[in-house]
């Protein structure tokens, strides 16, 4: 019996970093997916395979002692095995169509798909329990996560999210495209979040920016509901300005933002920043032009649609 789960990646439209400190963020699940397949085995190991790595780890191992790249998967597997007093092992295969370390939530999508695949093998398909397990697993490598990324990867669509109240689906029929361009500078979310924490501790600017970001997010929700792309784009560019002030942009990202703004409605970093991807807001009138400005300069770029299905799970014999 195979338990197969797939989770979408994500883009943060507004509020990354500020969300870690309680500000509301707006996120979108995007139509790029990670699939995790789990089967039971007769040995006492958790075997994890992906295109980049493979490891067989004895179940008796403490999860803290495993390599970071395997740790969330091992954590979920061990917890589930123990909960069900299962006597065998697990074989977990990861198939990713999401570039990693570039702000598109590959780690969160992995945690969500793995939680669903592993827990689903033991008959647990409750989304809230899967989400909790995914966030706990992500915390084994990134302690400060706000939980926003795992939440949108679980439920899909467009959501607003804050740490206190959790998520609310935004009842919007998106009429826009997101163009995603990759700086190819990989980053560690944990390291960038720590850098922002130091910035916050050193200066009052951060708390002022939190207040401004909160106002901006409310305006963005209104623009999204009214499909007002010109104002939404301007708000994205304003959000980019706040992200620059907290120090998570750099020269390359800045020049990509300039390129994007020459054709799109507005653009910003998505995710932790310091590298990774930028997103540009477009519709049919400027989508191709926006793609072209990046392709002409040899940037990897693609357009995405909002994924409305979220996590999917099936059992195959
Ligand atoms: C990372 O995709 C988003 C951050 O806000 C961190 C988090 O919310 O956990 C930088």
Short description:
This protein has 317 residues and is of the alpha+beta class. It contains nine helices and twelve strands. Strands 1, 2, 3, 4, 5, 6, 7 and 12 form an eight-stranded mixed sheet that branches. Strands 9-10-8-11 form a four-stranded antiparallel sheet.
Global shape: globular
Number of domains: 2
Please count the helical segments: 9
- What is the count of β-strands? 12
Instruction: Give helix % range.
Output: 25-40%
Distance between the termini: 4 Å
| Mean pLDDT over the full residue set | 97
Assign the structural class, choosing from mainly alpha, mainly beta, alpha/beta, alpha+beta, or little secondary structure: alpha+beta
CATH architecture of the largest domain: 2-Layer Sandwich
Give an account of the 3D structure.
Strands 1, 2, 3, 4, 5, 6, 7 and 12 form an eight-stranded mixed beta sheet that branches. A four-stranded antiparallel beta sheet has the order 9-10-8-11. It has 317 residues and is of the alpha+beta class. It has helices at residues 71-83, 106-121, 127-139, 148-155, 189-202, 205-225, 229-245, 251-261, 287-295, and strands spanning 2-14, 25-41, 45-49, 54-58, 89-96, 158-162, 166-169, 177-182, 266-270, 277-282, 300-304, 312-316. It is built from nine helices and twelve strands. Helix 1 (71-83) runs parallel beside helix 2. The longest helix is centred in the C-terminal third of the chain and has 21 residues, at 205-225. Strand 9 and strand 10 (277-282) form a beta hairpin. It folds into two domains: 2-172, Ribosomal Protein S5, domain 2; 177-304, Alpha-Beta Plaits. Bound molecules: (R)-mevalonate.
